[in-house]
Design a protein that fits this description.
By secondary structure, this protein is an alpha/beta fold. The protein is 24% helix and 28% strand. The chain binds flavin-adenine dinucleotide (FAD) and nicotinamide-adenine-dinucleotide. The site of flavin-adenine dinucleotide has 32 residues, from helix 1, strand 4 and helix 7.
Length: 442
């Protein structure tokens, strides 16, 4: 059997490795238009902000590894069209030479693309996006210019907040804009984001929330950013207002979600029996929403690639859904969340309650210690946990995995009240904040 995989980043790589490692004799062809594969975008802000030495270690595999495993791989080759009836993929390399590959099964792993603000001045120099490795390089180069003193970041989601920190670490004046009244509004409730916002301000980032960019102004290069509330002199702009699915190749043939992502079943199969879709170009099932949705994360890309790989290889494997678990660490302030915030539940018309608690991570007699804030969100009628948020300068990140499982398994808030949680002063308190939050639930 021959499988063609379009897109060889996290999702395509996971699908290819699953097939090559578990199904000997299977024929795998990978096609990607980029020069590189496996770039961990999560490292861009660390590298641009000089928290790590360089970008070299942000790649975890390469073309040669796939060749050694027996795959055919075409880099710098763009798929231009797919004949879904004849099962042929047409592609073109950078020299303009056209080729084609037939398939028995096709895996679409074409990922996502940044949403481009469609406002006047969008073709000026000094405007950036942050998706590809090459875009990270351009941002890094621009930040190295002496005449770049003020950087505007539009979108205070994950990319925006991370790159704002990086720009500040590079000594720039940083202005951070978002349409919402706080940073990270898609992931946390205001009771949590207010702490991140204070943290950003305390570290010298100028916040402009509830403000919409309307125009970029400049001669050749951007010089001003105009919003609905003011005009700002800027030397560089980084746009980070979210991703949308890159489904150009199959959107006329396959069923799609409201944002254009390929609709997939729990085997990652699309509406065409021979075609699978994985990662950021596909939908995903949310256990919190109990519905199909879209969540662009590397973690989901890898898992969905594994699922498609096995199903294509001949082992039936069902996706178990996701919670969209995520985390961020900015100037030493750590936040993690899973499932739905109260605001997200409200938007999805799920009637929820929540329980909050705040305490020191460890007993008071331990010197290296800091407060932890927790919120657990649960559905009023069923009492199932639908989400959790934690924040602290302590590393509280691993707690969120348990809440992810709780959401996945529809555990009720009442089940959490007497859960056996160990105590050791080096790590936590006998009256654990998770227990205390659960006990306080209405
Ligand atoms: C700056 C940044 C930081 C991030 N941080 C995190 C994080 O900390 N944690 C996390 O979980 N996620 C993070 N993400 C999100 C994560 O990177 C994406 O969810 C992930 O890359 C999705 O993987 P993918 O393989 O589905 O798609 P993509 O990474 O978008 O890859 C798609 C591939 O398809 C190729 N392709 C597309 N069209 C064609 C075509 N026509 N022909 C040939 N090839 C094609 C592209 O060249 C690309 O290589 C971050 C993203 C960015 C940009
Ligand atoms: N730490 C992590 O896990 C991590 C890090 C980076 C990226 N990612 C993922 O990559 C994807 C893309 O990240 P992202 O930061 O671009 O998206 P995002 O969805 O996290 O944030 C986009 C932000 O832009 C704002 N926005 C939207 N339209 C706007 C407009 N017109 N003007 C001003 N603000 C506007 C939104 O309110 C939101 O806060 C996301 O799925 C994200 O979860 C994850």
């Amino acid at each position: 059997m021959k499988t063609v995989i379009i897109g060889s980043n996290h999702a395509g790589i996971a699908a290819a490795n699953t097939l090559l490692d578990n199904y000997p004799g299977t024929e795998v062809v990978l096609i990607d238009r980029n020069t590189n594969l496996s770039y961990l975008g999560c490292g861009t802000a660390l590298w641009v902000g000089r928290q790590i030495d360089g970008y070299e270690d942000l790649f975890y595999t390469n073309e040669a590894t796939f060749r050694e495993k027996g795959a055919k791989i075409f880099m710098e080759s763009s798929v231009t069209s797919i004949d879904f009836n004849e099962k042929i993929v047409h592609f073109e390399n950078k020299a303009g030479e056209k080729s084609e590959e037939s398939y028995d099964k096709l895996i679409l792993a074409t990922g996502s693309k940044p949403i481009i603000p469609n406002i006047p001045g969008k073709d000026l120099e000094g405007l950036h996006f942050l998706k590809l490795f090459q875009e990270g390089q351009e941002v890094d180069r621009d930040m190295s210019r002496d005449d770049v003193q003020t950087v505007a970041v539009i979108g205070a989601g994950y990319i925006g907040v991370e790159i704002a920190e990086a720009a500040k670490r590079r000594g720039k004046n940083v202005l951070l804009f978002d349409a919402m009244p706080t940073s990270l509004a898609s992931y946390y409730d205001p009771e949590f984001t207010q702490h991140m916002d204070k943290n950003l301000e305390a570290n010298g980032i100028e916040l402009h929330f509830g403000e919409l960019a309307t125009e970029y102004k400049g001669d050749k290069r951007v010089e001003q950013l105009v919003t609905d509330k003011g005009t700002y002199d800027v030397d560089m702009v980084i746009n980070a207002i979210g991703f949308t699915a890159n489904s150009d190749l199959g959107k006329d043939h396959l069923e799609t979600f409201r944002n254009g992502a390929y609709l997939v079943d729990n085997h990652q199969k699309t509406s065409d029996d021979s075609v699978y879709a994985v990662g950021d170009c596909a939908t995903i099932y949310s256990n919190a929403l109990e519905a199909t949705t879209y969540i662009a994360l590397a973690t989901n890309a890898v898992r969905s690639g594994i699922i498609a790989g096995h199903n294509v290889g001949g082992t039936e494997l069902d996706a178990i859904g996701v919670q969209g678990s995520n985390g961020i660490s900015i100037f030493g302030y750590n936040m993690v969340s899973t499932g739905l915030s109260v605001a997200a539940a409200k938007k999805a018309e799920i009637d929820v309650d929540y329980t909050d608690y705040e305490d020191l991570q460890k007993p008071g007699f331990i010197k290296e210690n800091a407060p932890v804030k927790i919120r657990i969100v649960y559905e009023k009628s069923s009492r199932r946990i639908v989400g959790a948020q934690l924040a602290s300068t302590e590393d509280i990140s691993a707690n969120i995995h348990m809440f992810s499982l709780a959401v996945q398994e529809h555990v009720t808030i009442d089940k959490l009240k007497l859960l056996d949680i160990f105590f050791l002063p080096h790590f936590n308190q006998p009256y654990n904040y998770i227990t205390m939050a659960a006990l306080r639930a209405k």
